[in-house]
Structure formats: C-alpha cells, structure tokens
Design a protein that fits this description.
This protein is mainly α. It is 72% helix and 0% strand. The chain is built from 19 helices and no strands. Helix 6 packs parallel to helix 8. It is globular, with a radius of gyration of 23 Å. It starts with a helix and ends with a helix.
Amino acid sequence: MLRYLTLVDHMKEASIPLDQAEWNSAIAYAGRCFARVEASEVESALHIWKEMEQEAGVKSGVVTFNILFDIAVKADKYVLAEMILEEIESRRLEYNRFSYVGLIYYHGVKGDGAAIRKAYRDLVEAGQIVDTVVMNCVIVSLIRAGEFPAAEQVYERMKRIALRATGQFIPNSDWRATRDLGRALDKASRIMRNDDEGLQRLQAEQFIVPDLRTFCIFVDHHVHTTGELRRVTGLLEDMQLLKVPIHGRIYLKIFKGFAYHGGVKYTSWTRQRLELVWASLLSALEDKMDGVRMMKWTVIWVVRAFAQCCGRQKALQIWEEVRDLWSIAGEDEKGAVEHLLRNILEDDKSDKQHQ
C-alpha cells in the first residue's frame, strides 16, 4: 500500500498523469490500509479524491464513489455516506453491481431490514446477476439488522439449491477470483441490458450455494452471539455435506468460541471437545490442506482457548507445541506473540478455576 502511494507521489512529481483507475486505487489504499477504518483514513481518502478532481482534473466515476461510500460506511460516517449517495444522484451516474451490494451492506449496518430488501429488489430489477457473493451480503446484512431467522431462511434456500445441483461443486474461496467474477458479471449485465433472454440464461448458470464466506458468517455469529456449539457443529456437518473444504478461518473462529464460552459449569464448550478440534487442526496441518496454516491469530486463540478451558499449565504446554509448528514466523513475531500471551497466562485465575 505504501509503495503504491509512494509511486503515485513520484508520478505526480514527474508530471506523469494518472488515469481514473489509478486514482481509484490510491483512494482505496488510503482509506482501507487498516482492518478498522478510522477518521484519519477517511480524511486521507477524501484528500486524494479532491486532488484527483480539483488539481488533476480527472472526473470521478461510479467506481470512485463506490470506494468512498464503502470507506465512509466502514468508518461509521453515515452522514458522509448519504452525501456520497446524493453526489452520485446529482451527477446522474448509474449504479453498478458493487453499488447495490454496498447499499445492502449499508442498510444492514444501520439495522434497516426493509431497506435491505428494497436494495436487493433494486439490484434484481436493474438486471444485475445474483450470485453467492450477493446473497452472502444479504445474509450478513440481515444478521446485522437483527433478523437472524430471515438470514437462516436465505441460507436454507441456498443449501437446497446446492443439494439439487448435479455433479461436484466446490465454491471458490480465493478473493481475487471472486472479485474478478463480480467484475465479469457486472460487465455482462451492462452488455445484456436489453437482452432479457440472455440475462435469464446467465442468471440460470449461477450456483447460488453456500461457500466458505457463508459458513464463516454463521460460525462467527454463533461464536460471538449465541454461544451455541451444536449450531457450529451443524454448520461443519453442512460443509462436509456440500463439499466445502475446512479452512483456517473456521478453525480460528471455533478456538475463539472455546476462549469465550469454555471453562465454566454446564458449558458445551468442554475441554474434551477442544482437544478434538485441536487434533483436527493438527491433522489438517499434517495433510497440508489448502487454506489451513498456523498463523499469528490462530496461535493466539488456540492458546487462549486452552488457558480458558484447561488452565495455564496446559496452555503453556500447547504454546511450546505451537512454536514448533509455527515455522513461517520469525523469532521477532514469535516473541511479540509470546509477550502478549504471557500477559494473559501469568494471571493465576485460569489455574485456580481448574484446580
């Protein structure tokens, strides 16, 4: 990100003009450089946008405003988000696929279930192709709006479609492939705007089935909100049924669940079940399964889970095992994580509750 923005600065210093796509990338990098978008990132993105239009004389397109809108929503700047929507309208720019998906997500953040449904209808009526990415956005937006039963209904319809499909279908979990497919579908929708039969054929070719992202959404909800391990187990069974491979992101969320809900009386997040999940992860690592690696946050939540469910001594034992498995990390990164974990594990409370 910094290298790209530095390159942009060098191009400006050399009086080399940037096109709209290059400006758009600069805005996106400035606004999304961290996992959480803060006011400073919003300010940086707006500064580059103003420089693009006012100094370089490059007019914004709908993609530019999609990026600004996404940054504003993720920073909880809803007044700014509404102003961006008004700017799109005033310039008479036509919404594309990503505009509609962004609106669905926005109304989910605001907790407006009716507006989510309207934005989805608008997407369909505009001739945009509905696929798993769109439905995942609908699901997560409904959950955010407090309509979990409606989100589950969407999931169950997707599951039925998957079970009726002939042949083996494994949804793509690579974000670049997903992004490129979205762009291709957006372009196809524009090309076939006046070809209703062509649009219907293209829509019929879409596998609107649960993918890794779908399962991550629901597992995350049960880990953070309901604490129901049986629901998580049911989702894992569905993944196996639909031939969606297990992924490191799923393991990470499950270990979080044990850290949040384990170590108390009558919990279903027991030490024995934690040991089974740990054994499953070790097996997946040994088999070199795609998408399953020992990463920084996996390490942290594995150790936290064992500290919560089994006590400090067991957690330290697991930490020693993890250090050997975590081969891709440098000593500095291991040291930083060890320091973080020691701040948690040196507290005797985790031992006392297991004595």
